[in-house]
Amino acid sequence: MLHDPQVETGKDPAAGYKSRLGMRLFCIYSTFYVLFVVINLAQPSVMETEVVAGLNLAVVYGMALIVSALVLALWYDRACRREEVRLNQNNQVER
Amino acid sequence: MVLGIFISFVLFIVGLSFYLGRQTKTSSGYYAAGGQIHWFVNGIAFAGDYLSAASFLGICGMIATTGYDGFLYSIGFLAGWVVALFVIAEPLRRMGRFTFADAVDAPFQSRGIQLMAAISTLVVSLCYLIPQMVGAGVLVEPLLGLEHRWGVLMVGSIVIIIVATAGMASTTYVQFLKGGLLIIFSFILVWSVCARGLSTNPPGGDGGAFYQHRTIPCGNSLPLVPTQNGLRVLEETISKAGRFALVEEVSDQTAKRTWWRVDAGDAGTRLVEGECLVHTAGGNNLINGLPESGTNKLRQVGSIAKLKGETEASTGPLSPVGILAALGHKDTTVRTWKEAKFEAANGDKVTVYHPVETPGARLLRPGLKFKLEGTILERLDFASLMLALFLGTAALPHILIRYYTVPSPASARKSTLVAIGSIGLFYVLTLFMGLGAMTNGVLNPADSNMAAPLLAKSFGLLLFSLISAIAFATVLGTVSGLIVAASGAVAHDLADRFLNLQLPEKSKITLGKAAALVIGAIGIALGILFKGMNVSFLVGLAFAVAASANLPAIVMILFWKRTTAAGVIASIALGMVSALGLILLSPDLYKLYGLDPLKAPVALSNPGIISIPLGFLTLVVVSLLTERGVRHEHNG
After folding, report:
1. Considering only CB atoms, which chain B residues are within 8 Å of A15?
2. Class of the CATH domain delimited by B2-197+388-531
3. pLDDT, tens digit (0-9, with 9 covering 90-100), for B51-102
4. Of B235, B330, B530, B586, which residue has the fewest beta carbons closer than 10 angstroms?
5. Dihedral of alpha carbons A63, A67, A72, A77, sign
């Protein structure tokens, strides 16, 4: 039985670059996330510490985890698009 | 008005499904919308698919009752998208065709993987279906005045129509619509909360004035003698949940008997009034001492006891930061509500919902629900939940199939980016909706799931109608996605690929629709059975099953060349069975069975910390034992 993606995607010369960058950003974010869990497990009362504008560490860290996911995602998309364009241009020149 | 808006919304969605259904002629169209959905539409549809009853009803309800601990679900649910974007999105789009099984089977062409991945898809989808159906029942009760089971039946029937008419195309547009509206109206609700500000005298729900529950001092001698005239203590009981007194109150020649909490402290003994539900030995229900009726219901609760040290204060309009700063102030205390169940001397079954004054600073950090300062096991439970939330998203079959609805891997990446932006914004809003419900006197003490719609009701019927219709669509959108994923597992993975039935295109679609009908019916039955459980908690369990069964296979196929078909089969099987087994033997499920949770053989409520590593370990060990020259090509 045929078992191909239902829309042919062709070869992606940037796949390796995107995979490596993705793993690196995943590691950065995971560290940030694990640190949050560890602080809560080890010293939960630290999360009550006021950080800025009357907001405590728990609120600031939680919001930062949400916002940083978006920031890293935007960065990743931008880097991927730049690499895709660069490699496609190189391929066209070689042809 | 409520009914009119609700019915118009549902009719519009069903009409849209029939319109799109006429254009669905192939199995590719049915399961993956032909792979031609625009990435932006797909991104918002991702949000519509993902922001389920757990997110809107469950998280807001949990924040409203336990503060920051509910927000932990928002953080974990969003963090899971990082795994989806950076690790899974593009490679998975390159590998698959319609379903999760297609993707994990792509390098092997193994019938064992096809079977096991299809079973896993069915199990995870059903686990995820339960909270959605519970949420549907919860919504319909106050909205249409129907019983929980009729609400579940109604949602199930409408979703079966949506999925059976057009499959993924109608599901995508329903989710797109619902995702967009949910974010817009949540924003309006949060804006309204900020404009109202905080007050120790909130407006309350249902248009009536907010009821301030009393605290009455009484002497330390026994029997207790309240200092307020007309009150008399008849009976006292000490249960696991605390000390309670049956108080008779005589006014206007009527007498009613209600249970109050007894607080004994340095300042003397006090009686604290709560909301009281008694199921008498004769089979009647009494609410606050009088027979239950349409007008005699549990009062809505939740308020600020002290605002920056003041017992009578209002802030006026506040910014979002201002709301958090005022609530987290060291001299702010909030009345949160706890449940106590015990049996009275005459055999009556008593449930008392009683207020506890909690410092605002304590509410805005983790630890009220999760015992972070408790035993090692209790801390492990928290770590286990956070692990499952982080790793579960990228392993949910109904989310994974959405990657096949876009034309290219780059579109898959861009739609995930849109999803992270929209879902992240929504999760930030959940904190304000939950805290708004906690402090505006709108909470139903017996059911936290309705916190957000009841908060909307305190701003008027129009907002309540719209929010309720959107919440209903929230359930519809997610359930549609789940049923498409599960019907794909039956019709495509099992019938077409595993059994190799060689069905013509039309028969494949018919089989998918029949599977949708059966799975929808099972979901309805389970939704009725699990009535009353917090939907976020149930979704957390579904995440643990997904992360344990599916994630090791996906990740290792992508990143470990020595992965074998036998390793994948074993890891899916063991991950799924171990996660399910641990859940079924956990304290929370023991409570559902009516057994003593302390006697549960497994102390953890969240299984992820055991079952996820077990899934990875199984895959590695079995692959090493069975590799013998077997290698698979990477699609990277």
Report:
1. 90-91, 94, 636
2. mainly alpha
3. 876 778 888 988 999 999 999 989 998 998 888 888 887 777 777 666 778 8
4. B330
5. positive
